[in-house]
Sequence to fold (459 residues):
Amino acid sequence: MNHILVVDDEAEIRSSLEEILREEGYGVATAATAAEALVLIEDAPYDVVLLDIWLPDRDGLEVLADIHRQAAEQRPEVVIISGHGTIEAAVKATKLGAYDFLEKPLSLERTLIVLKNAVEARRMRVENLEFKRQFSVSSVLTGESVPVKALRQQIRLMAPTNGRVLIYGESGTGKELIARSIHAESLRRDQIFVELNCAAIPEAHIEAELFGFRHGAVGQGFSPGSQGGPTEHRGTLERADGGTLFLDEVGDMSLKTQSKVLSALDDQQFTPVGGTQPVCVDVRLIASTNKDLEEEIAKGNFREDLFYRLNVVPFFVPPLRERKQDIPLLVREFLAEFGRQYGRPRMEIGEEALETLAHYHWPGNVRELKNLVERVLILNPRTLRIERKHLPPLTHRAGTRSTEEFSTLQQARDAYEREFILKKIEEARNNVSHAAELLGLERSHLYRKMKALGISVRE
Fold:
């Protein structure tokens, strides 16, 4: 639930706003004075403060300045409200950090739209700050292989520019992390980073998601206005204004949407679905693809003119099989990360296990390696050192494919079941009765499973 603080010296306004906002699903608190408001803000986090400019004990703009001195991750968005609105006051409020300025008497529809957008703006700000804390460029691009060193150098050279970037790479190689690294070293690092996965958005929704929609936009998979749905939606392009927009898997975008993206890139403006007024933006665009776009152009699936707009600075992210010397560093980083996440003591990995991982094909790339490390850590809660025997059977065979390459679901299920039973037998020190207890099975049932899966144990 999002929380709103209403600060106004008129009891009737406080009461009516509280009732309306609670009906809209917000948590609401109210204050009649600046002093009361600042105490509430200090005691509890709020997403948005609706702040009257005229208060009995202080000027609302002074309160705004106090709020804006808070730490960025704690600071709410502030919407100024006033019965004596002037352009000068609105400009001053904006310079002091106000999200928006509303005049009394308040329009209910506009107030709700502004609040919704302010809540979303704060959420994105907090998410970006959290990302910056957790991921520096050095930690994102773990590795000392030649391809990774080349990528770091390329990021250092190109990040400070506004050049559009197209990132090529197989699924799971870390294209999103490269995009975030470019943003983190760019001149826009303190602005928002917005991501849109073009492959994950249904075709009927992608235009509204990218360009947003306005009241009256029908047939876009939404139910605006009187149907109870939103009356306005700020698309990713509008939310990314001033910052970076990352279009992930841009090769999955339809030709119709490609045409509109091309126009938006050329003009740095667009018209939301159902809207009549163009929206101007200042956005740096980074795109990624796991497809050969030149091949897609030849097939008629991708616009050649859009390709040349996006491909100003190409980045190539190598698959893990071409940077295997980075596997030990990646594994130790993932072990530390998941150790912290699950409250586990520091884990090590043996040389034989690392050698086994180095001989595996890694069709799922870094994502597959990370998932494997998490899986091994979960299945071996008492282990402080990962050895070859703790690794999934598939990694023991050089050049093998991932579990996705099983021909049937039953084969995949049997492989996982066999591995899990072996882990529990190891925990039980080869005592099948104890292993059966750990697995929640009857001893006879476990013996039948072991026989079917080809597991033999010397008790």
